[in-house]
What we know:
Elements: H1 10-14, H2 19-32, H3 36-49, H4 54-66, H5 70-83, H6 88-100, H7 104-117, H8 123-135, H9 141-152, H10 167-180, H11 184-198, H12 203-215, H13 219-232, H14 237-248, H15 257-270, H16 276-289, H17 293-303, H18 309-325, H19 329-343, H20 350-362, H21 368-388, H22 394-406, H23 410-426, H24 433-448, H25 455-471, H26 476-489, H27 499-509, H28 517-533, H29 537-550, H30 555-568
Helix pairs in contact: 2-3, 2-4, 3-4, 4-5, 5-6, 6-7, 6-8, 8-9, 8-10, 9-10, 10-11, 10-12, 11-12, 12-13, 13-14, 14-15, 15-16, 16-17, 16-18, 17-18, 18-19, 18-20, 19-20, 20-21, 22-23, 23-24, 24-25, 24-26, 25-26, 26-27, 26-28, 27-28, 28-29, 28-30
InterPro entries: TPR-like_helical_dom_sf, TPR_rpt, Ycf3
Signal peptide: 1-21
Keywords: Repeat, Signal, TPR repeat
Amino acid sequence: MNKRKSLIVALLCAASSGVMAQSVEDGLKDLYYGKYLSAKQNLEKVIAAKPTEDKAYYYLGIAQLGLDDAAGAAATFQKGLQAVPTSALLQVGMGRIDLINGNAAAAKQKFEAASAATQGRDGDVARAIADASSEIKGGDRAYALTVMEKLLNNEGRKKKEQYTPIAADYIELGDAYRFLGGENGGKAITTYEKALELDANNAEAVMKQGLVNYNARLKAEAVADYTKATNMDPNYGPAYYELFNFYITPKKDQLSWDNAATYLEKYMAVADPADKTKTQYLSAYISFFKKDYDNAISKGQATLPGANEFYQNKLSLLIGDAYLQKGDSLNAQKVMDEYAAKAGESKLDSNDYKLLSTIYMRLKSSDSATQNQYSTKALAYLEKYAGSITAKDPETFIQIADQLKAAKNYTAAAEWYSKANDVSLANKEQLQAIDYFNVGINYYYGAVTVKPIDTTLLNRADSAFQKVIEVKPDLGTGYYWRGQSNFAKDQQAQAGVAKPFYDKYIEMSEGDVAKNRTTLINAYTYELLYYYFKEDKANVKVYADKLTAIDPNNISVKQITENMAARDKPAKPAAKPAQNKK
């Protein structure tokens, strides 16, 4: 679950005076800075002092969700409703739990009831509805936008009925635009700017402008926004954490273990001092990023016994990955297998599947049966990883395809390369020849490594190589592989379907025979076979000479030459019948 709770800023600006309001404000301030355990402790004190403070129950539940304790949050919302049965805000809290549990219909019913009870004009309730609807899987993001627009719309209202917006309202409205995506990104940026007009030092608004830029693949701008947020408020931990997440993302223009360690240390300096387990986990993580894998393992193992289920997951991944990075695949397997068995299939997520797949791909055994078991498990976990990810990210899809290719699961690799291309095209990105080549070459090998050869896959390969030609017509590769794809369908070269592509390839490649020797042998061989079956002796000699020049012992030349000689050899005259002697 996304831990950025924009709605938690709301009462920072709106809280009234008095001891109780100040205590709630303390909890909200901790939530704003991502200090969930401290927020939980503060809000529990508020409830102990005033058991009918519904906002304390609600934000306590949000703190528990930040600590990945959904069951605890649900219990808090229920307890709050027992104390304040008419609380629309706590009704929204229960709707949030419904969404987390996958019951979108029940959630929507609770949200609409809470909105109706407050006539859509209560800022806390509106932000709570919009936040849940935007951030949680299965939420109605268009509904989130509608709720916030209704809150902020004062058209036709008397002055005393008009709603006065605060920065948190515009942040929540910006979030609604951001999660809707596409052309709404620009609207989100503008809306976050409105929040800054009301609160010039609001680091959350600036950080979220960075999220919009990152989603638009404006990575330099995103980093600049995250950095600006930390400069505006050096205690704003979530921005440091975004920078940390940016640099641990395994993409060629992002991944930097050194930068990741730097920003994780900065985050730790302002993180929640009450959350000891998190501090210990992050300390182990820093050792990992500094490639001190032994220290990461020892710190992680020391923290595991006292960790809750959430951190047991994270620590197991860290320890398993540390063993893998230091080259100890067997211990990595042991750690992750034990974790997977203990957690159970329903608790495993995409990160678990990804690491398990990588571990089993690295395992090697001299025993063929054991090696087959490793390969089978690696592919099974990879497929589960592929099925569990929700991000439409070309680079992630390419990583999956690369692993499938390495495991020689060529057809599946081709399909994931194709998915990556589809997402890039949807994002209006221009594809390169290599993008189409990756699809074609894997469909080709997927076709020719099965018996009988799969012509459907060959047709897909042929189509992909045609795209290579369209993108890069001055490159011989596309013509050659169209030739190969059609050669595989016409292995006797009698139909001539590969000939136009080989003709073009030969024309483009004979200028550097040494560089293109292997590919020219294949092209010349098809031409030789084609003219042999056409009984075109002149061209048979042309391609036989070309082949012999670069491959003196070519078996095809030898066989065809012998066959033609035998064919041309005059038949022996029939023996005269013996004459009977008289």
